[in-house]
Amino acid sequence: MGKRITAFLLQIILAVTFSFCLAGCSESKKTEKEIIIKVPHTSTMNCISNENIKNVRTLLELASKDFIAQYDKDVKIKVVEFEGGEETKAITNSFGKSDAADILYDGFFNMSSFIHTGKVIPIDDILTQEMKDDISPAYLEHGRFNNKLYMLPYMSSENILIYNREMLEKYGLEEYIDEGEVISNWSMEDWTIILNTLADQFAEEGKGKVPMMMYAKDNQGDTHIMTMLRAFGSDLFDSNNNFDLADDPDVISALRWLQNGVDRGWYLPVPYDKTMSDNSSKFKMDELTFYNFNLGSSTYSRVKEDYNAETKTFKKYGFVNYPGNHCTIFNEGFEIFDNGDSEKIEIAKDFIRYFYETDKWLECSAGSIPVSKKVMEKYKDDILLLEAFSHNSVNSVDYTRNLPNWQGSENSVRSVFYQEIALLLIKDADGNFAVTPEECANNLQEKLNAAISDGRKNSILHN
Amino acid sequence: MKQTKSKRFFAFFILLIIFVIFLAVYVYSIVTGNILEDAAVNNIREVAVHDRNSITMFIEYNWKNQQRIGERLKRNSQKLKTVSQINEYLGLETYESTFDKVYLLMEDGSYYTDITYRKDSNTPDYYPYMDLFANTDSYKVIGYDALPIMGSDNVVIYGYKLSGCPKSEVLSGIKIGEDQKEVFAVIGICKRSTIVDGLVIENYVDDSGNTQGYSSVVNEDGEYVVDRKDAASSVSDNLFDIIERCDKSDLTPSDVQEKMRAGKEFWFYMDHNGVRELNYCAPLNSSSVNWYFFMSVNDKVLKDQTELFVLLIIAAMSATVIVIIIAFVLTIIMQRKTQIAHAQEKAQSEFLSNMSHEIRTPLNGIIGLNYLMMNAIDTPEKHLQIKEWLKKSQNTAEYLLALINDVLDISKLQAGKVEIAHAPMLVETMAESVYSMQYDNITGRGIELIKDFRITVPCIQCDEVHIKQVLMNIVSNAAKFTPAGGIIKLSASQSMMDETHVMTTFVCEDTGCGMSKEFLSEIFNKFTQDRNSTSNSTKGTGLGMAISKLLINAMGGEISIESELNKGSKFTVEIPAEICEIPDYLKSNSDHDAKKTTDSSGNSAKSMKILVAEDNELNAEILMEILNEFGFIPVHAQNGQEAVDIFEKSKINEFKIILMDMRMPVLDGCEASSRIRKLDREDAKTVTIFACTANSFQEDRIKALDSGMNDFLTKPIDIHILLQKMEQIQREKHNIQ
User: Fold this and answer.
1) CB of B91 less than 8 A from some CB of A
2) Contacts of A272 in chain B (CB under 8 A)
3) Among chain B residues, CA nearest to A265
4) How do residues B235-271 score in pLDDT, each as one tens digit?
5) Within a 10 A sphere around the Cβ of B575, how many other Cβ atoms?
6) Which positions ≥6 away from A374 have C-beta within 8 Å?
7) Domain boundaries, chain A
8) Interface contact flag, A270 B94, Cβ < 8 Å
9) Which residues contact A243 (CB under 8 A, 6 or more apart)?
10) In A, which residues are within 8 Å of B325 by CB distance?
11) Which of residues 178 through 207 in chain B touch A, CB cutoff 8 A?
């Protein structure tokens, strides 16, 4: 009898366990693999092969649908947008959660920090020989760290400055204007003359116009400001990829030149409390002369309207490299994350491979600068300024060098940099600046190198 | 049948208890769940109160901030002539304030910002801030998604009227700019996240980071002042409209409006697109606005908060219940074991009582007969009577011996000390043997004995002795319980189990008295005899069937009985066994053995001197007498030491055999044997020593053999077995030589 009771109890326990197992099994059967692709809200596109595609999210949603239709596995792909600049919240903070990104599409300078989390997998195996032959090696090189490819470039934006040529013309600065699809290079003396002339004239007008963009309220657009620290010839880094600023006279000169702009009225009032968006708004109102520009900019449509195809000239706009004749290459592309599911990694790789091997998706990169040679060849005549940007790439600088802790923490390079620049621009009630250029250089070197050092200490690379 | 009913009742009782306990757990979990849900709701209410206070304080603070901006503006307005000056002034105000942007709205709808002057709708990114004041004469706060000048951020716009505002009359009439327009209002813009970050409700996020609750502020017309950003807000920017369009709501829009106007704090549930929301509404604690704080929390949050607790409670309760059930079952099992132990104890007691009775009875008989015979021994005319008494005494003694042997067998079988032999056995020969041995006994009773042997596999590996013992027991029982004129049929048959094994079935059917059902169910118990049967005159130990079953089971077989009272019984013995070839020594077994035995009893015993070591005088005398009768020359030793001494003093090979009692005073049999074997004389190693003991346990055998004895004889000594063993030993020695 005792055995029967024991058997009865065991049967109940087994039945309950079995029911739970069945429930678990049925649950797991229902679960198809879901790949999450994350993309910043700010990833706008000027896709000329498909005018319906206005942003990367739409592009990836369409590509996902086609990929799933032809894929032999039962998968679901969800494209999730996050606010621009919220990479930490969207990517790092979701590690280990159900909404963790499997694929990230973003700018390389945002993505490079994630390489050092140990979550980003090397994707050299995605590259077919055809892809290797098609993508310019320089772009691929931007995606490598320690000789492994972590970021696969899709398209590229070359950042330069656009200017309101009518303002230059109005105040006798025509000599500095180059006609046609040309990106100008001016000496620092030229820059100083142009900015001072415009600032003086605008002050006289009293309409609130200013010549030069400047902002330091947040980290958006900080790389453009950082590029201007090279204006007098500094490379910013030493041979060990540490910032070398404090003892570099070229850096001190650049900082002094930027600080002098406050006194000379080059910038919007209270520039340390202005954002890139403030400057953009000001430029759109024709109250700012120089502002950032690339082929993905919202200004690009106005530039196309301004272009006279017959005379091959622009009426309102002109283009120039940043002071010091530099431009920045802003690559965009893909990263794949290891969230502990090898099957999802393989699906993510299959998707990326499919995306690059399918011409209609690859060609959507035409609008910005495509990294694909064949796309570039096909659309080079259809994209205004594409050739000019192509020729100008020799002036590009590698501004992040894929260094760790560039962003994503409170002491990251981006978190530190704009605050030090804000201090450079602040004047007290007596008209004295909060810091001298030398102090600013010292502070920058100390804090930026501390950020990188921390990043190196905490860097984990995926095997 | 009674036992089966009891078992069913017991199982039902257990199931009932389990059901009641689980029902109690279920009810308890529901009650606990409700309590926890109330606690969770209260928790959410606390969060809501916190959020409501945060929003109220934030709004109040911003009003004051704007008022101060207005006051400073009044002091500095004379300095603000150009756009650049106003931009810079507002830039500094923005930098110093809690707002992300501070604008000055002019009476004509144009406005100055910290970067520009936006004149009218033709100006890029112009926003009609004047619309904010369409329904208010003082303050206004609205939520706005993605204001162009603020990028993609959601913002909250605070409007503070300066011109004509009854609450800020001193700030009316401030004029700035080249055209000296009057400043209509101060506009403060801050990112919505500035408010939202301070709201606890943002903690209600699921694993995917999605917010599961929203705080908002609505005015008494249901319009969102600080809006909610979810699926519902896309339906409409009016709360009442959302309630109207939702799938289901506990309250109608008019109910909600009525409660709001009454300044009440209240809850209600609302379903949107399959999502159930708990909505909390309470008036803001602000004297300056007549707004209401409104919080919606996904019902899932409540469930998430309570489910874990309920699950934990259920798990804990279930574990407790399981432990109680296990303890209960164990108690019952222990109780039953105790009952069984008591029963066994009782059975043991009964067994001893039976044993006592069973042994005393024949002993008394023997004693009584001996008494009669002693009295009559000198009376010649009673010699015939004495002969009869002797015969009865002999029978009684044999019964007593059989009883003791059976008890010992039972004891050994139950202790697992019976070794089942696996030696070749001629099935038909064995069956014939049983038949032959029982033939005279049965036919002498006027019963017909029929045999029916259908043996297909002649030789199998099994324990012949024990099978024969079982069959003899069954057939002799049949003889006892079958009246004269009856029939007993002994049959044997075989069926192949596989290529190497055969099932041999022995059946003994009789037309005897049969057995009652009650007895049948007890037949394999010890000391069981059917007292109700007609066999009162028959005598058995009552242990035979118990022994038979134990033996057959030990061989892997089965024994079963079919019986009907007054009609007869049928005993079936099934024994599985391995098939084997007939070994040579079995081919002419019986004739050879018989001849040898005869020879040994006749010739080889002549003039053989046997040393008998036995401390019991009576046993020694009997044994000496028997040996004398068979022509041996026995010499008696009263203990082991004396046996050693006699042997040591004897001539070489004077004693061929020593019969050594195991238990003796001075020196026991084993030690004596060991010493004899160690003596320095040539026959010390060769003299045959038989251990003689009433014990027949395996350990006694091992002990005897280890001490140097050759073989084992069970008391009382069967002289025929002694002769056989002597013959065997002599033959073995001869073969060795």
Assistant:
1) yes
2) 95
3) B84
4) 566 888 888 888 889 999 999 989 888 888 888 888 8
5) 24
6) A134
7) 30-157+330-397, 159-329+401-458
8) yes
9) A236, A237, A444, A445, A448, A449, A452
10) 9
11) 178, 207
Report residues of chain B scoring pLDDT below 70.
Answer: 1-6, 136-137, 141-154, 167-168, 192-211, 225-237, 286-289, 305, 347, 350-351, 353-354, 357-358, 361, 417, 526-542, 585-607, 694-699, 716, 729-737
Mean pLDDT within A413-434:
93
pLDDT (tens digit per residue) in A11-34: 555 445 444 434 444 444 445 789
Touching A: B residues 18-77, CB under 8 Å? 18
Distance to chain A for B166, nearest Cα, Å: 33
Question: Of B124, B150, B325, which has the smallest distance from its Cβ to A284's Cβ?
Answer: B124
Class of domain B589-736: alpha beta
| Partners of residue B337 in chain A, C-beta under 8 Å | 2
Q: Tell me which amino acid residue B101 is.
A: K
Measured distance CA(B103)–CA(A415) in Å, rounded = 28
| Residues with Cβ within 8 Å of residue B453, at least 6 apart in sequence | B428, B431, B432, B491, B492
Residue partners of A411: CB distance under 8 A and separation at least 6: A405, A447, A450, A451, A454
Taking CB atoms and an 8 Å cutoff, what residues of chain A touch B12?
A: none
Chain A residues 205-224 with CB within 8 Å of chain B: 206-208
Does B95 touch chain A if contact means CB atoms closer than 8 Å? yes
| Number of Cβ atoms within 10 Å of the Cβ of A70 | 8
Q: How large is the average pLDDT for residues A210-217? A: 96
Exposed (0-12), middle (13-18) or buried (19+): which is A370, by Cβ within 10 Å?
Answer: buried
| Pairing relationship of beta strands A148-149 and B181-191 according to DSSP bridges | unpaired
**In Å, how far is B89's CA from the nearest CA of chain A?**
8
The domains of chain B are located at: 28-335, 413-587, 589-736
Residues A67 and B204: their CA atoms lie apart, in Å, by 35
Rounded to whole angstroms, what are the CA distances from A144 to A152, A243, A402? Answer: 9, 20, 8
Could you identify the residue written with the tokens 């038909």? B428
Report the alpha-carbon distance of residue B555 to residue A403 in Å, rounded: 83
Q: Could you say which architecture CATH assigns to the domain B413-587?
A: 2-Layer Sandwich (3.30)
- B151 neighbourhood in chain A, CB within 8 Å: 84, 275, 277
Residue tagged 């069945």 (tokens) = A22
- SS3 per-residue string spanning A386-432: HHHHHHHHHHEECCCCCCCCCCCCCCCHHHHHHHHHHHHHCECCCCC
Query: Beta-strand (E) ranges in B421-552?
Result: 423-426, 448-454, 459-462, 487-496, 501-510
Q: How distant is the Cα of A86 from the closest Cα of chain B, in angstroms? A: 12
Pick A30-157+330-397's CATH classification: 3.40.718.10, 1.10.287.3510, 3.40.190.10, 1.10.10.10.
3.40.190.10
B14 contacts A270? CB cut-off 8 A: no
Does B84 contact A at CB distance below 8 Å?
yes
Q: Å from A348 to nearest chain B CA?
A: 20
Fold type of domain A159-329+401-458: D-Maltodextrin-Binding Protein; domain 2 (3.40.190)
The shortest C-alpha distance from A385 to chain B (Å) reads 26
Nearest to B209 among A1, A94, A279 (CB): A94
Residue A102, chain B, CB below 8 Å: the answer is: no
Q: Which two tokens stand for residue A221?
A: 């657009």
**Nearest CA-CA distance, residue B120 and chain A, Å:** 12
Interchain CB distance below 8 Å, A285 and B123: yes
Instruction: Note the pLDDT of residue A47.
Output: 85
Q: Give the dihedral sign, CA B711/B713/B717/B718.
A: negative
Task: Convert A263-281 into a string of H (helix), E (strand) and C (coil).
Answer: HCCCCCCCHHHCCHHHHHH
